[in-house]
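Q&A log
Question type: sequence-to-structure
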Amino acid sequence: MTERWTDERLDRLAETVERFITGAEERIEDLTAVTQAIGRDVAQLVATQQQSSSELNQAMIRLADTQEGIARLLANLDDDRPTILRKLNAIENKVDRLLEQQ
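Response status: OK
Response body:
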């Protein structure tokens, strides 16, 4: 048995297809907007990560410079220690002499 497609039935089918297409277009617009928002968020995250990475690199460089400075300071203290010890010994000797004189 072959069904006949009446004009009324064809009109209903056309309306259904049109509603489906309209709904699909709206969903595509929504998905496009969401995709663009996600893209903006990802770009912002990448920029923030790059800035953080740059700041971390700068902090590491400053830390390395500080460590080198501390190492030089300690080396200089080691070099100056004999001089400081001689001066302290001289002061101690003078104090001892002063105490003996009293």
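Response note: Residues 2 and 99 are 133 Å apart (CA to CA).
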